[in-house]
Each structure stands twice: as C-alpha cells, then as structure tokens.
C-alpha cells in the first residue's frame, strides 16, 4: 500500500488505436458490428447449451464456458475502445485501469487452460470412448473447469498486485487501447526488471505448457485416427470435424498470446501488441461461434431447436 500512496498519477490516458479522425469512424463502425456479433453469437451458444438437454455433455459444457469467457474477455476492453473512438475521451482512473488489467488476464489465462481441457476431452472421447463416462463424469468436468477459473484468478491477481505497487510519477500515456502489463511497466519510475522477468516466466510457462499439452493430445488423436478401421468413416469424419474446429481456435489464440508475452518489450513491439490485441479481443471471440457452429451438426441442430421451434410455437 505504501507504493500506491507514492503514486502521483491518479489517471491514465489510453492512446487507442489511431489518431486519424476519419479512420476512427470507420474503425468504430467495424468494431461495433464485430462486438454485436460477439454478443449475439456467444449468447446464442450459451442459450442453446443451457436449454437443449442433448447438449448437456462435457464437450458442450466446456464450449459454454468458452463462450462465456469470450463475452467477458471482449467486454473488458472493447466498450472502452469504442467509447474512445466515438468520443475521443480515453481517460481511465488508476483503480479502473488495474481492474481492467486484472479481468483481462483472468479471462485470458482461464481461456488458455479451458482450451487445454477441451483437447483432453476430445482425446478421451476419441481414444478411450468406453471409459469416457467414468473419466469425464459430471463431478469431474465441473471440477476441472473450476480449477481453470481458480488458476486464472491466482495468475491474474499476482500480476495485478505487482503492477499496482509500482510508482507512476508523471508519465500517464499508455501506448494501447486498454491497460496491459507491458505498456504500464514502460511508465513506471522504478526498476521493472523483476516484473518483466515474472511476466515472461509465468505467462511463458502458462501459454507454452498448455499449448504443448494441446499438441500432445492431438498428436495422439491423429495417431489413433490413422489406425482406425476403414469401415468407421462416419466416426472418423465427425472426429476430424470437431478436432479441426478446436485446432483453428487453439492456433489463433496461443499464437497471438505467445507473440505478445514472450517477445521483448520495446517501442516497436508495443505497436505490434496493439494489432495482435485486436485479434485476440475482437476477431477471435467473433470467429469462435462461427467455427464451433458451422462445423458442428449437433450445435446447428440445437440452435434451430432452441430459436426457430420456439418462434413457431409462439405463433400458435
């Protein structure tokens, strides 16, 4: 608390994405529609999983959690970014900045862990289908998802406390459209080497280890699919469809995360981080509903049952 009292900066100014006025209008319209799509797409998946009893299974429970995380993840940063593009006011109080930083990393870390769990679920379902009900019982998969949230909570809290205790003297302009650790460390008037090392080590460990676990799961799944009997074409195509959807999401998410937090921190990389942050906060959450519904027959059928049948019943 002592360090916080020494902080002379009571608010920060987010520099946003661009200073070009006419470009701000174009970006506002573009990202506003993306954000609306994120809300509608992920809320639709959540509604379908909750209402349709056919989707009350581990795979769709994890997918509902992923949709929930995407909603929160985007809502942590995008509304403030849209307000800045529209009104030009990108001021954020010190306390609000730390809250934003905390929730951004909470949802980000939890999503990385959840994607790993989803790959493990596919591994059990495809490689050990007879033991699936035992290994992925209701109690087990709810506990696993809970652990993801708890680890995300601890991970984010540790980074937020370390960042908030740094003294920020006079510089208060953040080279980003939301509060993140790297840009804030550049503004601190103290030695930040410990913070930078911890960010690289902890974030690097979480992103790299989870990515490796996902890849191991899919290498084993791939090997199993290659050895499947020729007559199991339907099972083969269904497994390929599900795994391909998940792999696209994994490569997008982990690729961006590792580029952002494992690389060096300088002026050029901070500019690149703004672009990659747009991908992870706007583009990826908008793509997830498309990827998981267009390639999933069960989800498409459930969405039709949830929305279209209910509409037809209201007519009568």
From TrEMBL:
PANTHER family referenced in this protein's UniProt entry, alphabetically: OLFACTORY RECEPTOR
Topology of this chain in the membrane: Multi-pass membrane protein
A cellular component term, taken from the record's GO annotations: plasma membrane
Superkingdom of origin: Eukaryota
Organism, as annotated: Xenopus tropicalis
G-protein coupled receptors family 1 profile domain: residues covered: 41-292
Predominant subcellular localization, coarse grouping: membrane
Keyword Membrane: yes
Recorded family membership: Belongs to the G-protein coupled receptor 1 family.
Entry GO MF terms: G protein-coupled receptor activity; odorant binding; olfactory receptor activity
Pfam families (UniProt xref): 7tm_4
Subcellular location: Cell membrane
SMART domains named among the record's database cross-references: 7TM_GPCR_Srsx
Transmembrane regions listed in the UniProt entry: 25-50, 62-82, 102-120, 140-158, 201-221, 242-263, 275-294
Sorted UniProt keywords: Cell membrane, G-protein coupled receptor, Membrane, Olfaction, Receptor, Sensory transduction, Transducer, Transmembrane, Transmembrane helix
Protein name, per record: Olfactory receptor
């Amino acid at each position: 608390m002592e360090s916080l009292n020494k902080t002379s900066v009571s608010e920060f100014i987010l520099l946003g994405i661009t200073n070009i006025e006419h470009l701000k209008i174009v970006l506002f319209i573009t990202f506003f529609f993306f954000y609306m799509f994120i809300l509608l797409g992920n809320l639709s998946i959540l509604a379908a999983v909750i209402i349709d009893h056919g989707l009350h299974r581990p795979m769709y429970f994890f997918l509902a959690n992923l949709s929930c995380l995407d909603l929160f993840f985007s809502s942590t940063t995008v509304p403030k970014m849209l307000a800045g593009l529209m009104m030009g006011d990108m001021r954020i109080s010190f306390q609000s900045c730390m809250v934003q930083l905390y929730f951004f990393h909470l949802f980000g870390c939890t999503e990385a862990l959840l994607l790993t769990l989803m790959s493990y679920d596919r591994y059990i379902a495809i490689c050990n289908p007879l033991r699936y009900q035992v290994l992925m019982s209701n109690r087990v998969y709810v506990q696993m998802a809970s652990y993801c949230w708890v680890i995300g909570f601890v991970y984010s809290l540790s980074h937020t406390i370390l960042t908030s205790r740094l003294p920020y003297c006079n510089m208060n302009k953040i080279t980003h459209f939301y509060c993140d650790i790297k840009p804030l460390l550049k503004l601190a008037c103290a030695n930040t080497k410990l913070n930078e090392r911890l960010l690289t080590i902890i974030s690097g460990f979480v992103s790299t280890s989870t990515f490796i676990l996902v890849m191991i799961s899919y290498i084993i799944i791939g090997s199993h699919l290659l050895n499947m009997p020729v007559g199991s074409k339907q099972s083969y195509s269904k497994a390929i469809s599900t795994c391909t959807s998940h792999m696209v999401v994994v490569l997008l998410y982990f690729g961006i995360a590792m580029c952002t937090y494992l690389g060096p921190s300088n002026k050029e990389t901070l500019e690149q981080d703004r672009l990659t942050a747009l991908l992870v906060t706007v583009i990826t959450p908008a793509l997830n509903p498309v990827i998981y519904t267009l390639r999933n027959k069960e989800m498409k059928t459930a969405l039709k049952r949830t929305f279209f049948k209910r509409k037809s019943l209201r007519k009568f």
